[in-house]
Amino acid sequence: MKLILLGAPGAGKGTVAKQLTQLDGSIQISTGDILRGAVQAGNELGKQAKGYMDRGDLVPDTLIMGIMEKRLQEPDCQKGFLLDGFPRTIPQAEALNVLLNKLGLKLDMAVNIDVPRNVILDRLTTRRTCSNPKCQAIYNVKSMPPKKEGICDKCGSPVVQREDEIEAAISHRLDTYNQKTAPLIGFYEKEGLLLTVSATSSEAVIEAIRKYSPPNP
Ligand code: AP5
């Protein structure tokens, strides 16, 4: 599978991507995880990205395209990839098309996970994430708590609340999504790649992806 996961913050892109990787060996590429790893490592990319991320703003397109150009050429992408949180703007989507053409790759679909705003707000304030940059497992204090409070089931690292999870940043991220990322729904509809799934259960989203066959060009 080579697919893009679209959807507002908290729609469940990361959760669905992690489950989809179990199906066919495709890998999850989350620009958010890559950036948080860089912030935690304190490297140059992290220093440049931190301010934007904490405010809930998008990191500049040039930085993101630099990351993705390298990432998509790594050997583990050959079995397929799930792009989680990328592209985020029309210029990123256009640059991705150019990059995929250059690499001789074709997307199978762009999945828009459509979840009501009240569900999203509730999920984001109750989400917890593994602090180990190599793991980044996702939990939820209500629906999916770790077995031992505050400790990751998978790697034993502390499970924490993300820095952009305060209410002001969440509301800014949702506004940014509506202004800059939601137009991608129309972009991928025109490309004939869009699958919209209105569901709050990740199982329903995965089932819709499994059943989808793209319309003939
Ligand atoms: P990023 O990490 O991509 O964050 P996001 O898009 O805001 O998405 P989230 O990770 O918040 O949500 P999600 O949809 O993955 O939901 P999840 O599965 O975790 O980006 C962070 C920042 O990095 C951005 O603000 C920006 O600054 C920067 N950035 C990243 N990419 C960029 C780009 N391309 N360009 C520019 N800047 C970029 O689920 C949420 C919660 O809900 C969890 O607790 C989960 O357990 C729970 N949940 C999920 N599904 C279900 C379900 N079915 N039932 C019950 N609970 C559920």
Distance between the termini: 18 Å
Order of helices and strands: EHEHHHEHEHEEEHHEH
Counting helices, strands and paired strands, the structural category is: alpha/beta
Record the strand order, biggest sheet.
2-3-1-4-8
Range of helix content: 40-55%
Say how many strands there are. 8
Instruction: Tell me about the largest β-sheet.
Output: 5 strands, parallel
Ranges where pLDDT stays below 50 over 5 or more residues in a row are: none
List the helices and strands and how they pair.
Layout: E1 2-6, H1 13-24, E2 27-30, H2 31-41, H3 44-55, H4 61-71, E3 81-84, H5 90-103, E4 109-114, H6 117-126, E5 127-130, E6 138-140, E7 159-160, H7 167-181, H8 183-190, E8 194-198, H9 202-211
Parallel strand pairs: 1-3, 1-4, 2-3, 4-8
Antiparallel strand pairs: 5-6, 5-7
Bound molecules: BIS(adenosine)-5'-pentaphosphate.
Description:
The protein is 47% helix and 15% strand. It has helices at residues 13-24, 31-41, 44-55, 61-71, 90-103, 117-126, 167-181, 183-190, 202-211; strands at residues 2-6, 27-30, 81-84, 109-114, 127-130, 138-140, 159-160, 194-198. Strand 5 and strand 6 form a beta hairpin. Helix 2 (31-41) packs across helix 3 (44-55) and helix 4 (61-71) runs parallel beside helix 5. The site of BIS(adenosine)-5'-pentaphosphate has 33 residues, from helix 1, helix 2, helix 3 and strand 6.
